[in-house]
Structures
1.
Amino acid sequence: MDKTLEKTGIPTTEQVESAFPPQERLDEGAVAIIECFQRIPCNPCATSCPRGAIVPFEDINDTPVIKNENCNGCTLCITKCPGLAIMVVDTTWKDPAGLDRALIKLPYEFRPLPAVGDEVIATDRAGAFVTKAEVVQVLLNHAMNKVPIVTIAVEKSLMRTVRGIHLDARQRAVVCRCNDLDEADIAAYIAGGATSIDELKRVTRLGMGPCQGRNCVPIVQGMLARTLGVPVAELSPGTYRPTVKSIALGDLAEYDSARDELGDGEK
Amino acid sequence: MKNTADYVIIGGGISGVTVGYFLIKHGAKNVVILERDYLTAGATGRCGAGIRQQWGTELNCLTAKYSCEFFENAKEELKYDDAIDIEFHQGGYLLLISTEKELEQTKKNIALQNNLGIASRLLDKSEIKQIAPALSMDGLLAGAFHQKDGHLNPFHTTQAFAQAFKRMGGIIHTNTYVTGITTTGGRVTGVDTTQGHISTDCIINAAGGYSQQVAQMVGVELPLYSERHNILVTEPVERALNPVIMSFSLNFYCQQVPHGSFIMGRTCDNQPRDLRTTADSEFPVHMARSITKAMPSLKKLRMLRQWAGLYNMSPDKCPIYSGTPELAGFYTAAGFSGRGFMLAPATGQSMTEMILGLEPTLPWQRLGLSRFEEGGELILEPSVV
Ligand SMILES: Cc1cc2nc3c(=O)[nH]c(=O)nc-3n(C[C@H](O)[C@H](O)[C@H](O)COP(=O)(O)OP(=O)(O)OC[C@H]3O[C@@H](n4cnc5c(N)ncnc54)[C@H](O)[C@@H]3O)c2cc1C
Ligand code: SF4
Ligand code: SF4
């Protein structure tokens, strides 16, 4: 079996192709494209679709199957998918510029958000430059689970290649989203003599945001290993501290009454 | 690694880098700092980095004032580069008063502070409300406030000193563990480290919570113990609290750093004294309880992380700035009892004056080890946490 996805995190052309509906369906209007290929315990897409377009899961590990005829491209599932695995494509858009462009509606969780009319860089699934694209709509409201949707117009021929946007011509590679650190920031500290995650944490706040290092630490361990010429396994893993997940102070304060009510988890 | 030095400082926390910086500033050469991990790996990288001048003894007030004035001018003095921001936020320290006894003591302290040029003042409830609108007034009698108090970023402050120290010729070896100290005939001759031996006739023990361990290498028993203290941080939010708030009787301190996070701590019972810095699972619950009582609007704020560090406690909860009578060339800057960050510029200056034989800026010789001997005079500070 092709292991590209497991190794690189990037699906193969065949996998992407399999997520797209047939041309006839594309010709009918907006439709969700779900690129979720691995069995993982996750199901918000299936439970969120108001039109029953995502077949109910029998097992929480099922991968989503979409009934294209039920989907009207409403974009609701985009905002529910924690993996940002869903986009909506509309090839029936009446392009005011008279060009042959399709709309792609993408989840976009970075700040700042682009504005309508902006020209942004459209990237492929590996994050590489594909083309420039016009922003047609930017949506974010309270019902959207804090997931903004940015709609861009791209040439139909590139519709299967484009899967992301970049606002910044510098093409910075963000490493720590919580504290907005990019690869160049971290590389400079490593070049300046930092040799461990804990050390970088103290100067940059790397890994100290809400994700507590889940996203950035593996990336930065790789950077340290490459720069220092030491295998990752030999690097200090860094200190992990409670709590595993962020928790409201008000809930913590009521911990004792909750424990009295629910028990402490021991049988 | 060069195998000789005129001065060897053990410990790369805020005390080590300030002692190094002031030594060079006053003309010392060949100064080396040895740190077993990396800069700020000890208490410095784990502290609240709060600085207040509201103390109850003259020496503590003046020492804190000296340090505060240094931090106010740190950029001109240290000339660190723009990538560093020591984030000195002078939003004041607001000490909450909830018992008559505290009120009595505070009035005395304020009179003393005002005499020494520290413009602290007593606040009534409506004045407290203005300074910290989010505070609940339940159970409060009054507050004590001094605008020039505040907090810094401990990592960047340490880096700022380290940068100046290196620029002026100082050397820092990180990942270098001091494993032994060599002596002959009642004086030090060098240090053994995991990276080799360095000969020197002057060693400054600035090893924070590990300073007893270092002193034991030469058979000196410092009258200190290290105790774990817990602290936590929340997600960052827009500024909602300007001063550091602190209460002795309610047992907490809390501040919002410029980055937006709230950082808070309290003194917990039954903390280990064996150099452990693991997390105490009871702490966040007690902390959350006291802080949501004092500031109910924080109930929704999410805690991200808790950690712990060592308070290095001395018998009178004041630091030890001292030589060692029985061992020439062995100096101690330790025992900060939970406030070594705010004292750091004074630590650097006073140790330098002692080592180089300069005229003392303040009567810091009172902080020597001899105060713990019979007939010695302790510095009894009424306002420690
Ligand atoms: C939770 C908490 C909150 C605090 N809040 C405040 C506050 O708000 N304001 C304030 O002023 N102070 C505060 N403090 C106290 C303050 O952090 C310390 O007093 C201060 O940081 C001490 O600095 P230091 O350089 O003396 O020690 P440290 O920072 O502990 O540095 C000692 C260094 O020595 C190194 N070392 C130890 N043994 C060896 C060896 N054998 N060889 C080489 N290196 C060695 C260690 O790795 C360490 O880096 C707080 C402390 C804690 C734990
Ligand atoms: S776009 Fe709307 S209709 Fe289509 S699958 Fe998602 S939620 Fe269902
Ligand atoms: S919500 Fe997203 S990640 Fe989860 S199963 Fe559905 S498509 Fe996959």
2.
Amino acid sequence: MRNAPACEVRSLRKIYRDPEVVANDGIDFSVELGTSFGLLGPNGAGKTTLVRQLVGLMRPTAGKVLLFGEEVQTGRSSQSVGRHMAYLPQGAFSLGELKVREALQYTAMLRGCGRATARSESESLMEVLELGPLADRQLRKLSGGQRRLTQVAMTLVGRLPVLILDEPTTDIDPELRGRIWTLLAERAGDGAAVILVTHDVAEAEHVLDRVAILHEGRIVAAGRPAELKARLAHRTRIEVVIAEGTTLGDSFLTLLGPDHRVERRRVSAWVAADEAVMTLEKVVSAAGPGAREDVRLITPTLEDVYLELGGHHLKDEE
Amino acid sequence: MNSTSFGKFTVLLRMQLTRLRTSWRPYLIVSSVMPLGIALLMRAVMDRGQVDRFGIQIVAGSAVLAVSMTAVVMLAQRISWLKETQALDYYATVPVSRSSVVAAVLISFAVFSLPGAILVVGVGALMFDLSLTALWTVVPVWALGSFALAGLGILIGFAARDEQLAGMYSNLVMMAVLFLGILPAAKLPGWVAPLRAVLPSTYAVDALKPGLAGSFGAGQVVDLLVLAVFGAIFFACVRGPLWPKGE
């Protein structure tokens, strides 16, 4: 059933018992080969619950998950899921005594690669993700970020057609985060279906073909990032960073309108897109050259879309 | 060439055995100190006649206790931790059979229990002046006994709600192994007979005793067969819980 979507979710519902919590409520989406799909939302939105059902680790209360048209069966042998799908969980890895190189090679071999292929793929991934110097170090002796990077490499090794990654960039420094996003975009470009759960909305949105925003177990918005951001195209955000030790008067804040937001030295507000430049000039003039450290005009991001839909700041929830 | 099922099993086993890199000392110390201490204590308070009468029972019981410390207590706590932290997700999402994963875990913990068992048998034989002429019979007893006891350890690990409870349950089992294994059956009250019958350690001790006396007989073969049956039952029981039920 290779013409079926790589992963399809139909009317998925998951209810935890005792206490009763509706974690997922009527979720529908599909992901084709050669595309990337992001699941965004704050903690408790139901993202990880959803992902665990996708990989067969949790049984849906209702609805179904299809992998290349075949229903994912929970609690049965993982072999059919594992042949097509690689999963990066949030949780711990059981064998900290494994060395980085072994973890990659063994995982590739468990996914069916021969020894030579496993070795060459592992070496190539270690090079791209700068894991080479750590190749002979045990996982338990790595920092949190290094261990996460190794787990990402373990997910990519074996080149399976469906990749599901739950918070792949946690604890990883910005430069390597960029490499992971690039690598994932390349995998999607090479024909894989990539499903991502992430808090790094600003970085991830550049590699995602489509996203779904989850809130309280439901998808509250879905589409291409550009489509979602177009909902807010009539607005622009002005952001001013005030110089250390400077106090700005009410007249300055009045310029930004009643819904401005103040976080320490950062003041931001939404203004109408066609008035943004004019308002910015007024703000710059009112603040004076010594009072402002930085001034920016920011077009809406996916996180802004999420906030508009009634959520909280994604970063605040980490 | 792609990995075969056997190839994948050997990879899983190698992955499990990497624990020896850092954990061989705890495995050796935990499994041997207490059984050796008990054997030493018993030897210290026994006269020559008692040593002759009960030495084999004490060494055999201590050796099986050494295996139980690793295969039951440490394995139960390990499995419970893996379950709690969802670390088993890795195995549940790679294309390997449950049987391969379970067999790899069972065999690895059987291997971990070997150094302690050898140490206890060797030192115990010296302490109690036992024959080492049929020492080779320890090998099948260790292999089948540790496999059966590790199955019990995994079962406890899955059944316990958390690591603390797994530790408590497995220590209770270990106490039963200690008393029912080291004390001669004739000295035990009648009501413990059913408990002796359902503990695989009983058959491991009984299978070990003739070897420590320098002989090998049909009774030993029967005990080994019973251990194999226990191993098969536990193996079948723990295949299910390894993968999540879909809570």
3.
Amino acid sequence: MTFVQLENITLTIGKNEILKNIDWVVEDGEFMVLVGPSGCGKTTLLKIILGALHPDTGSVYIDHQKINDTPISERNIGFVPQNFGLFPHLTIDENISYGLKVQKIPKHEIKKRITPLIKTLKLKNLEQRKPNQLSWGQQQRVALARALAIHPYLLLLDEPLSSVDWNSRRTIAKEIQNLQEEFKITVIYVTHDIDEAFDLGHRITVMNEGIIQQSDSPLNLIQNPTNTFVSSFVRQTKSLKRTRMIMDLTSEE
Amino acid sequence: MKKFNLFMLIYASFFIAYMLFSIIYLFSSIQYFSQIIEYLGSSEIHLALWISISSSTIVMIISLLFGVPTAWILAYKDFRYKSILETLIVDIPHSFPPGVVGTTYLLMFQPTSFIGSIFTNLGINVINTFWAMILVKTFISSPFLVSVLTMKFRDIRKTNLEVLAQSLGASSFQTFKTITIPLSFKTMVAGSARCWARALGEVAGTIVFAGATIPGLTQTMPALIVFEAQESIEKAMTLALILAFFSIFILLTFKLLMERRD
């Protein structure tokens, strides 16, 4: 079932056409990875869905409702930016419960909602600390907990693993995937790393120069790339298994 | 690296020595200290101090009340000719000679001018009043608060923390209250202190537009110092010391307020 739908989205900033006629669909409960080289418009597209930017033309639908004019505060979309964006003056507990407090949810209800999150995301005993007292990985988990606490319809993750070392990447990526399954939430995950996309995505959307090149299952992207950009982008994989698969397909041709 | 440090240290030392020497020289006028106690009992000084401090505090409150929204608009809203507007309302008042500001207001509010005639018809006289002083001091001092606060708001805007707060459900007002104000609080206090201090020291504009001769109404300490300097340099220096003590005490209070916040 279609959950997020973008229709003919364009955006020009100054003289630069950042997004060109984007039509895109993300299904309900899907883990969609949006992948492409730096500066291709991925984050801009995410910000349009979030409501932080407004497109020049086109429509954004969530659950069949057009939300172009819905203010960002009423969209109920969880967002984890690249630098996590934790509020530096608030404690971890205050950061996680921020969204619930501003929505004037009663204290006991807030506690009920954030206690399991703190447990799941292994943040116990860190509640009274400030963000700068946490490790990078812990900060990321706080950002995830804060985004999930509002029970969002949709979770947007903007390169959350870009500054995490290779060893921790797999573990955290797995954690995110488990959370998605546990909370049964639709996720759009932005990255420039094709292997991260292959590891996580139910489907992968490849983007370049403000245009969606292909939106497909990981296997189909390897087997049936729609153009030379997708085919060469997919070949950037560092995974031996996938490299072999691509080589086998090329030799068959 | 060592050479660079030495270079910075030498230049900084010149500046620090220059500033400290000037301040120490003021306080070294120790022969006037005995007179401080005597003058502190004078009702003329009490009134001048009261007018100086109360008018500067009112100017600071007005600047906060109107300056915070102005800085917010300048930092968060993108519109045409914004940089020209900012130059006009923030940068130019910094460089305006206060005497010229006083003269401008004097011409603006004289009964024959357009604005002056409106006030005259309403039976309100602004020239040579306490409020004339407030008008001049606000024009001269408020840009000190608005400029630093605009810069701070711009830095906060770049972090996108407010966008995040709104994505979590916060309204614009809640975002301002829970994110923008706490993150800019120290700058707000520091800017208010600079605004207050500038208003306290203002004299030329006040003399021109507010007269600054009526005790308990328009006569401020700096004006009294200027007038006394023509009669007795000892009295002027003593008054300057009294003003300096009060100003240091209040500015230190501002600093403590900022440190407690940490």
4.
Amino acid sequence: MQKYIARRVLLFIPTLLLASVLIFGILRVLPGDVALAILGQEAVEGGGGYTETQIRELREELGLNDPLPIQYAKWAWSMVNGEFGGESIRSTEPLSSIIARRLPVTLQLTVYTVLLSIIVAVPLGVFSALYQDKWPDYVLRMGAILGQSMPNFWIALLLLLFMVTQIGWSPPLGYSNIWVDPFHHLQIMIWPALILAWRFSAYMTRITRSGMLEVLAQDYVRTAKAKGLGQQLVVRRHSLPNVLIPVITLGGLEVSTLLGGTVILENLFGIPGLGQAIVEAAVGRDFPVVQSLAMMLVFFMLGLNLVVDIAYSYVDPRVRYS
Amino acid sequence: MGTLLEVRDLRTEFNSEGGIVKAVDGVSYDLQEGETLGLVGESGCGKSVSALSLLRLIPNPPGRIVGGEVIFEGQDLMKLTERQMRSIRGNKIAMIFQEPMTSLNPVLTIGRQLTETVELHMGYSPEAAVRRSVELLEMVGIPDARSRLSNYPHQFSGGMRQRVMIAIALSCTPRLLLADEATTALDVTIQAQILELIKNLSTELGTAVIIITHNLGVVARYADRVNVMYAGKIIERGTADEIYETPKHPYTRGLLGSVPRLDVDREDRLASIEGMPPDLDRLPPGCSFVPRCPHADDHCRAEMPPLSSKDGTEHVYACWKGHEFGPLELVQTQA
């Protein structure tokens, strides 16, 4: 098992290299000049102008005049040595502190969403399969299709609008750490988590349902019935562990789409996670922040895949022993 | 010895796109305690479905048992509640399936799959169930039984898995064992071992066995009596000797003629039964075998012959012309 994990981690290296080149490259071809953006904003705020010399000096200071390979190498090295790409050129906050502040928030939102989804989706999927083509199955499948086809941001806007206009309440604007003020924390986190979970659990319900139908038709389920086991044992002991194998695999892959949703909902609900930071930084052409945070998301995804693989080996003895 | 099982006019149907398929169409037979009965026929003739019907394990939908009685130890199984039925499955009547590769649950240990039956039906404590499981594995000839309890099915070979299946099936000392193509998926050498094992254990435990197979060699060696099925019906029944020496139904004769035999010189090609097994949702009005039968006449096309014998013996057959056929010609003709 350790060997297996070590091999998986080694395989991360080429993926990370490729992703870093892509991220770095994309940011270089985007239009817009950081030095101009910074000076322009200062000029607006300070009510003056700026000169060509100032632009050149700032570009030099930011390292923008170095050849691209050198810029890339500097950045890549800083990712390894723990500086994570230096500091924000806007706020001069070190990236290590930005990440330490923002990553846990996104992590929490993801964990809430996934937990909510599993709690809801697995029982519903099993139920749906057991009542295949009867009305509870139709109702659940309809709910799942709705959840999968409505865009997150649209539901989020409708929800916010509804809460403000109809019940005169809106989620608090400021964010609180769960350890400091759990109630306040939940008030703000519950809505995006619910919205993300609807979509995610819709997907998970569908996989669970189809997985369950497949398992129920297996020979070993027939064996279990022929032993005289009741419905409950047949489902809980003999079917469910087998259903979890595809559910974990496909669910793990789908978490990447979930991350996309997190970026949008963090912005809509003012949640200070990685997603919100990345959008803010992109708007301000704060490229060290954008590229380092994008790399963090890549790390996050790879880590998740590893967790999925390990979880997989726990439910499937054939993987564990090979 | 008394009668253990009486099946009366059992009918099982499946809904298919082409209409209703009568997979088991009025099957009747009985079984004495401790007897070994062979149920023979080609794929799709309804032999497996008739076994699953005994345990009421027909997947519904699309299948349904539409009629008949299955009197087991004096009770009609068709009238029992689902709960009562569960207390019979795996306890009084156990079943071994064809595919040892897929019939065991891949994510549960062999131990778990063995102990659950005795815990359920015999009320064993977990410790007692483990002791019993070790006993059972030793009984079916699995070495190092105690340590193998924590293994998973993929760590066993096909033959070993089928031994485990037999151990599970016999764990509650059933009165009746249904072996549905139990050795078909195994190597020939392993087949013999497994069949010997079933034979010995069933004799030891006094368990009656229904061997469901298309392998006539298996039946010849192990069955006391044989039922031959075709298109959902039993078309011939007799002792193994009667069936092998003087088969009366042209289908049985064709079946036996198509088996290579070591006791006959063979220079020509093996005989085969012409045509295809019939569509069970589009059966002809008379005898179902008519389209493939070289002896069929208008009477056969018009009326299904009953399962009977001309001279009132126990060797019965559903053929108008059965009495005309003598012992099977052992010298094979040119195909």
